[in-house]
Amino acid sequence: MSGAVIDGPEVVNFGCRLNIAEGEAIRAAAREAGTRDIIIFNSCAVTDEAVRQAKQAVRRALRERPDAAVVVTGCAAELEADRFAEMGARIVRNDAKGLAESYGAPFPAKARSRAYTPALSGADHARAFLGVQTGCSHSCTFCATVMARGTARSASIAAVVEAARVAIDRGQREVILTGVDLASYGDDSETTLAALVEELLALPIARLRLSSLDPNRIDDRLFALLTQESRVMPHVHLSLQAGDDMVLTRMKRRHRRADAVALVARLKAARPEIAIGADLIAGFPTEDDTMFANSLALIDDCDIVFGHIFPYSARAGTAAARMPQVGRAIARDRAATLRAANIRRCHAWLDAQAGHTATMLVERDGVSGHAENFAALTLTSPAAAGTIIPVRIGGRLDDRLTATEQAA
Ligand code: SF4
C-alpha cells in the first residue's frame, strides 16, 4: 500500500483500484473548484496499517504545508472522521469526493446520491481503471468497507460506456473494470455485470479485464464471456478470502471451499489459459491449524498464481473484531506462509510459459507490460508505448518474464 503523489492539485491515493480510478475524478473536481494550494488524501481502511499510513501522511502534510488546504476523503475518512478533523484536516465524504463543491470553501457535504458516477483513472498508463460501482450490500464479518462506502450502487451502463469511450479515444488499449463488489454491478438497477461487459464489447476495446469477483456471482452469461470472448482477458481474480468452510461461515461468505475449487476447474476446462488470482485473509478469528491448512491447500487446489494476501486485522465495529482473536504474530506468520506458497505456484506458472508466444500491451515506458493472462513482461528491446504486440517469451527474472517482439 503506497501513497502515490500526482501533480497538483495534489491527490494521494491509497488502497484499491477503485480508489486509484476515483483519484482522477477527485483531481478534476478540485481543479474545477479552482482551489490552488490543496492536497487531498484519498484514504483506505482495509487494514489498521492502511489507516495508520493515511494518518501519518496527513500529519506530515499539516506540518510541512501549513498554508495548504489538507483534505481527507476515502474509507479511512469515513470511519475516523473525528480523528482526522482533530488533526486539523478537512473531511470530504466518499459520496462527495467527485464533486467540485467539496473542494471550494466553504465545502458543504452533499446528501448521498443513489447513482454512482463512473471513475476513470488518468491517461498516464496504457491501461485504464474504470470504477463502475461502489458500496456493498453484503455484511462479511471482517469488513469495514460497507461502513465506509454504504450499500451497493452502480453507475448506469450508458455512463460507463461513455467513460470507456474516453479511455479508447486517448489511446488506452485496456480497460479494467473495478468496484467494491464488482459482481453485484446492476443489482440496484435491474441489469448485470454480464450485460455491461456485452455493451462495452460493442466498442473498439482491445482488452477488457475484470477485477475481483465474488465466486458465487459468476452467472452463465458472465461465465461465457470470461471463457469464450477473446477480448475479455483470461485472468479471473476471485474474492475467496479463505479455504476452510468453518472460517467461510464465520466470515459470512456466500460460497464454500468446494464451490471455489469447482468454479476454477470449470473455468480452466472451458479456457485452459485462464490465470487465477484470489484475495485471501490469514489468521481470521478462531482459525486453527487445521483450518489454516485448508486455506494453504487452496493455493494448489485453485491454482492461484496471483494472491492478494493479508494478515487479518480487526476493524472496529465489525462482528469479527468481537470474536476470539488468533493474534497478530500468528496472522502475520500464516500470511507469510500463504505468500510463499503463492510465489512458488506463480514461479512454476511463469516458468511453464518460456518459449511460448503471447500478446503484450506495452506500457508507457516502452519496455514493461502485461500478457493477456496478466503475466508481467519485460521486453529485451523497447517497443512503441501503448501498442499491443506479438512476443516470444524468454525466461523468468523474479516475478517477470523476458519477452522479444515478434514480426506480426
Ligand atoms: S463482499 Fe464482503 S468483503 Fe467485499 S466489500 Fe462486501 S462486505 Fe466487504
What does this structure look like?
This protein is of the alpha/beta class and 408 residues long. The protein has 3 domains: 10-101, Methylthiotransferase, N-terminal domain (Rossmann fold); 119-351, pyruvate-formate lyase- activating enzyme (Alpha-Beta Horseshoe); 357-405, no CATH class. It is 34% helix and 23% strand. It is built from 12 helices and 19 strands. The strands form 5 sheets. Strands 1-2-3-4-5 form a 5-stranded mixed β-sheet, sandwiched between helices. A 5-stranded mixed beta barrel has the order 15-16-17-19-18. Strands 6-7-10-11 form a 4-stranded mixed β-sheet, sandwiched between helices. Helix 6 (157-169) packs parallel to helix 7 and helix 11 runs parallel beside helix 12 (328-351). It is globular and about 55 Å long. Residues 1-5 and 106-113 have low confidence and may be disordered. It binds iron/sulfur cluster (SF4). Iron/sulfur cluster binds at residues 136, 138-140, 143, 145-146, 180-181.
